[in-house]
Amino acid sequence: MTTNDLNRAVARATGETVRTIKHRGFGPDEGDESGPYIDWDDVELRRNTSLFSQPSVNRNP
User: Fold this and answer.
1) Could you read off the pLDDT of 20-59 as tens digits, one per residue?
2) Would 61 be classed as within a structural domain?
């Protein structure tokens, strides 16, 4: 499977465009875990930040 085939397959499975998948850097798993690894869930958590501080609510008076 080529990288283009993989990108198309991932795009079909996720509903994203091939361009988006290519930008995110999917590649074949070669079994080498010593290389760079991106935890996309962690990236999304860091991106989701509040624009305004939220007051704490004390529901037990």
Assistant:
1) 988 887 776 666 555 566 777 888 877 777 777 767 666 6
2) no
